[in-house]
Each structure stands twice: as structure tokens, then as C-alpha cells.
Amino acid sequence: MKVITSISRIIVGLLFIFSGLIKSNDPKGTAIKLNEYFDVFAKEFEASQDSLTFSITDNLGTSEFISYTFSENDSFKNIQINQSEVKSIYYEDEEIPEDSDSFLGSTIFITANNQIIFNADYILEDTSELVTLNLKIKTGLNNVLLDKSLSLNLKTKHEIEEVLPIYQYTKKQSFWVGFFRDLRPYAIYFSIIMCILEVVLGFGILIGWKPQLVSWLTLLLILFFTFLTWYSAYFNKVTDCGCFGDFIKLEPWTSFWKDIFLLFFILIIFIRRKKIIPLFSTLFSWNAMAVVLIASTLFTILSNMYLPTWDFLPYKIGNNINALMTPPKGARLIDSVKSELIYEKNGQKQSFTIQNYPKTDDWKFVDAVNTVIEPAWKSKVHGFDFSPRPENGNVDIKNSLLNEDKYVILLVTTHLKKTYMDAWPKISLLANEAKNNDISFFAITATSLEDADAFRLEHQLPFYFNNSDETLLKTLIRSNPGIMLWKKGQIIDKWSCRSIPTFKKISKIIKKNNR
Questions:
Q1: Over the range 62-92, which residues count as b (16 or more CB within 10 Å of their CB) and which as e?
Q2: Do 434 and 440 contact (CB within 8 A), yes or no?
Q3: Measured between alpha carbons, how far is 47 from 42 in angstroms, rounded to an integer?
Q4: 390-514 carries CATH number 3.40.50.300
Q5: DSSP state of 447
Q6: Residue 377 CB coordination number (10 Å)
Q7: Rounded to two decimals, what is the model's pTM?
Q8: Cα 89–Cα 93–Cα 96 angle in degrees, nearest 5
Q9: Helices in 61-186 by DSSP H: which ranges?
Q10: Full strand arrangement of the beta sheet holding 63-69
Q11: Most CB within 10 Å of its CB: which of 42, 173, 345, 470?
């Protein structure tokens, strides 16, 4: 048992240190994964809300349906129906030519909480045909809240307001929904603690420091990890647990069985915890643990403040994104799939292939099952695209980064409200100098363009922001904001918000790269 316990300590200790170091290298990545779990758990406890359906029809063939799902905080909805003054529909505010086919009509506006949900022009000149409009509002459970018919003619002018008591049909959310959502802002702190704890516990297991305490903490931690990986695998909720960051990607069930493997050895350590003898003296062990704690804490915090020491993401320095997006020669471009057709006869089900399925009426088709035999090649680069905007001349940023034979500086910022503010004066200066030296400078964000423009004006930035997907931005660089230097699809260099380069530094890199 001593030998088995020693082997268990070596396996568990080394794996915990390795896993902790990989996560410590990129604590933001671990925080992103934790937020995925928080979102999933919140949705699990989320009450399914009823919905509101607007049905708008008229006797001329118009039919429109609008659906709105309640939220917990909905209380009232103000519905307004307004008919505009009689006008010439085609020649409003203009003199009508004598030979024109003009007709008089009116516009109906229906608004909900001051937002227009329906508007249409109606010709009312011909009084021989009465125009009627019907608005029906009901919940998904068929509770009719409003059913109103209106007659439209040249003499009517409808101004109707109704208040719907939505709160009667909303459901209060569970405490756990708010609990898990409220954890999101603290994900980075949980990530840092988890990374440090793994390294410290792994080292503690190896040297036999405080075996009672360490074995209990290790057992609790592995039980927590095992639950998460089982949950991910069984419910297919989070397809990558992030056990080894972006260095090693594990399938959900592989992650679960890895944790079961570790749990087996940890249970041996836990059972034998009273018989574990420390390898070193008490003083040396305390000093060694203090050094490991301080070193792992500094490494994790610095990795969070700056960029990962080892970048395992697709957009690391030196990578050519064009090459990563190009399938290798002979690669399979579509999945190889085996198809089975399930038929039933006399209560018995049987599977057939597409070539030999029964074509007689006594067999009833039940289902088709497709099994992937060999998956298609998949690029590591996903969703690499940026929305153009007129203020930037509708420049194709993707094409500039991947294909233009010149250097491009790319500013990446996920959410401007959470950005590192001290970086922006340096970024503004860098953008101005880049422009003066004919170097393209682009800025991309996941923040709405309206808020981004307000931020630009507030800080007098000499560039406009373009939009892109938040996941892509977090994958491009683990910093908010961050700077990247590109040339024809290759990432030349990248800097965090706390190390924004001067244009002089970038010029030196460009000169060196051109030699």
C-alpha cells in the first residue's frame, strides 16, 4: 500500500501542478469557461415565461403576427392606436398634378410602450367598401387581453390607448437564477483562486505537507470537477470543460473519465492520509509551500494583467491565419456519414440502408439516423469577420488583415465600459502617428456602435470603431483593450492594455521584419 500511495501521490500531484500551471497561464480563459457554466446553471433554474401575441388583420387581406416573450420585470404594456389625418398617400406635402391618379387615405399606427409595431396606409376615398381593422392581443395560454375592431373612413380619427397588466402573467425567477448570474463579474477572481489552489495542492501532495488538510481539499476539488465534467458530458451543455485550457482540448466524456481516473488515486491518498509521512522537515515544507504559493500567485496575476506566457490560441504571434483557414491537401471537406432508415412492421422496428429500404406499403417509415463516421476537416479559426461601416469608407477589414501586402495595426476591445482606461491616451497617440505614416489602423469592439461613438467623442479618439463578435475578440487577444500588428494574414506581434507600444517601437519591429 505504501508503493500504491506513493504512485498515487506522484500521479495526482504532477497532474494538478500541470493543470494549474496551464490555467494560470491564461486565467481569463478559465474565467470565460466559468461564465459559460454560470450561464448554463442560470438557464437550468430559469422559469419558462409566457408570451404575448399581437394579431393584426383587416378585411383587405393584411395579416401580421408579432410575438413578445415576457420577462420577470414586465409590469404594464401601453398599447396605442392612432389614425393620422386624411391625406393624399402618394403626394403628401406636394401639389397633386391634375392628371394624376390620386386617392385619399390615412395611416394607422399601433405602438407598444412607444415602439411602433405596425403601420400601414389605407385608401379611404371609396366609401362603397368599408375598411375594418382588428387588433387582438392574447397570451400564449390563450388569455385574450384585447380584442378591438376599428372602422376606417374619411371622417374617423382614432386615438385609443389601452394598458395591459402584464405582471399578472409573468413568473418570478428562482433565487438561483440571480445567484449564478451575479457570479459572472467575479469569475476572474474564482479563476485565479482555482489556478493557484491546483498548483499548491499538487505540490503539497508531492511533498506530503499537511496530509489531512491537503487530502480533504483535493478530494472536494476533484468531486467538484467531476460533477462539472459529468454535467457537461451528460447534458451536452459545455462542450469543452477547459481542464487544460486551450493547450489540450478534451471531449466532454473524455474529461469526465479523466476525473474518474484522478478520483480513484485521490481516494487512495484520502484513505491513507493518516499514514502519509512528509518528505521534508516541517520548517522546510512550510518554506517550500510559501515559495510555491507566492510564485504561482505572481505568475497567475501577471498573466491576467498582461498576456499569457504561452499562447495556445489560433491568433498567437507568428501564426498565419490564411494558412490556418486553408484546408490541407486531401482533407475531407464534408462529414462522412452513415445513414440508417428505421421502418416498422407488425410492431417490430428494423433498420435499412438507403439502397435496400422496403418500398412496400406494409412497412411504415419511423425515423432516419445519421452517424458521422469520419468528421470533416475543421479550421481552428472561426467567425473571423468584421462589420463594415460608412464612416470608415466601408473598408473590408478582413481583407486588409489577410490579403493586403502592408502592415496593419488592429485595436481589439470587447466592452468599452470594462476597458482599462489608462491605455487610451497611448492608443490615441499611436493611431495618430500610424495615420501620419500611412499605416492602416482599425479598431473593433463588441460594444454597440452608438455607445462606441459616444466613447470615441468623449475621449477624442482619431478613429471609428467597427463591430465584431465578442467570442472572436476574446480569442484574438486576452486583453481589453489590446493591440495587434498584422501583415498579409500573419500576426507579427501583440500587446496588452498595460504595455501599449509607441509607434517608434512598432517601426523598429517593421524594419527588423523587412530585413
A1: eeeeeebebeeebeebebbbbbbebebbeee
A2: yes
A3: 10
A4: no
A5: S
A6: 11
A7: 0.79
A8: 70
A9: 175-182
A10: 63-69, 51-58, 131-139, 144-152
A11: 42
Give one word for 230, left, alpha or beta, with left for phi > 0 and alpha for psi -120 to 50.
alpha
Nearest to 449 by CA among 391, 406, 409, 507: 391
CA dist 508 → 257, 314, 462 (Å):
50, 25, 23
The DSSP H or E segment spanning 251 is none
The amino acid that residue 277 corresponds to is I
Q: Are 110 and 128 in contact (CB under 8 A)?
A: no
Start-to-end CA span in the chain (Å): 63
CA distance 363 to 360: 6
Judge contact between 30 and 194, C-beta under 8 A.
yes
Q: What gap in Å lies between CA 382 and CA 35, rounded to an integer?
A: 20
Q: How many residues does the chain have?
A: 515
Tens digit of each residue's pLDDT (9 = 90 or more) over 305-355: 999 999 999 999 999 999 999 988 888 888 888 888 888 888 888 888 877
Q: Helix/strand/coil (H, E, C) string of 197-250?
A: HHHHHHHHHHHCCCHHHHHHHHHHHHHHHHHHHHHHHHHCCCCCCCCECCCECC
Residue 488 backbone class (left: φ over 0; alpha: ψ -120 to 50; beta: rest): left
Show me where the domains of the chain are located.
2-45+178-305, 51-169, 336-374, 390-514
Instruction: Show Cβ contacts of residue 346 under 8 Å, excluding neighbours closer than 6 positions.
Output: none
Is-contact 212 218, C-beta < 8 A? no
Residue 183 is placed in which grid cell?
A: 457570479
Q: What is the pLDDT of residue 97?
A: 55
The string over 128-137, giving b where at least 16 C-beta atoms fall within 10 Å of a residue's C-beta and e elsewhere, is eeebebebbb
Q: What is the mean pLDDT of each run of 10 residues along the chain (515 residues)?
A: 91 94 94 92 88 89 87 85 76 52 78 88 72 89 88 84 87 89 94 96 95 95 92 82 74 89 95 92 95 97 94 93 90 85 86 82 84 85 90 91 93 95 96 93 95 95 95 94 95 96 94 85
Residue 494: what residue type?
Answer: K
Q: Which residues, other chains included, contact 340 with Cβ-Cβ below 8 Å and sequence gap of 6+?
A: 351, 352, 353, 368, 369, 370, 371
Name which of 84, 79, 85, 106 is nearest 160 in CA terms: 79
* pLDDT given at position 480: 94
Q: Which DSSP letter does residue 102 get?
A: -
Task: Please tell me whether residue 129 adopts helix, strand or coil conformation.
Answer: coil
Q: Are 50 and 139 in contact (CB under 8 A)?
A: yes
Task: Give me the helices (H) in 282-410, please.
Answer: 282-305, 321-325, 397-402
Taking a C-beta distance cutoff of 8 angstroms, is the pair 195, 24 a contact?
yes
- One-letter amino acid identity for 217? L
pLDDT value at residue 102: 61
**CB contact at 8 A, 113 and 81:** no
